[in-house]
Specification:
This protein is α+β, with helices and mostly antiparallel strands. The protein has two helices and three strands. A three-stranded antiparallel beta sheet has the order 1-3-2, covered by helices on one side.
Length: about 60
C-alpha cells in the first residue's frame, strides 16, 4: 500500500515514522521523504491500523 504523509518534511519525521512502523511489527516499508510517501507491505496489519499508528505520532495521512 502507498500512503501520502502530508506533513512529513525532514529526516526527524522520517525516523519517527520508521520507528513507529518497526515497533508495530511492520518489517517491509520504504519511505520517500521527497514525495512524502510511505510504501508498506504488511500482512499483519490493515491499512487503517497503519494509518492509526502514523497519525498517533502527529502526522496527517491522506
Amino acid at each position: 500500500m502507498e500512503l501520502f504523509i502530508e506533513n512529513m518534511s525532514c529526516g526527524h519525521c522520517k525516523m519517527t515514522i520508521e520507528k513507529a512502523l518497526t515497533d508495530a511489527g511492520v518489517s517491509s516499508f520504504t519511505i520517500d521523504l521527497q514525495n512524502k510517501t510511505v510504501f508498506i507491505q504488511s500482512k499483519e496489519l490493515t491499512k487503517e491500523a497503519i494509518i492509526e499508528i502514523i497519525e498517533a505520532k502527529g502526522y496527517h495521512v491522506k
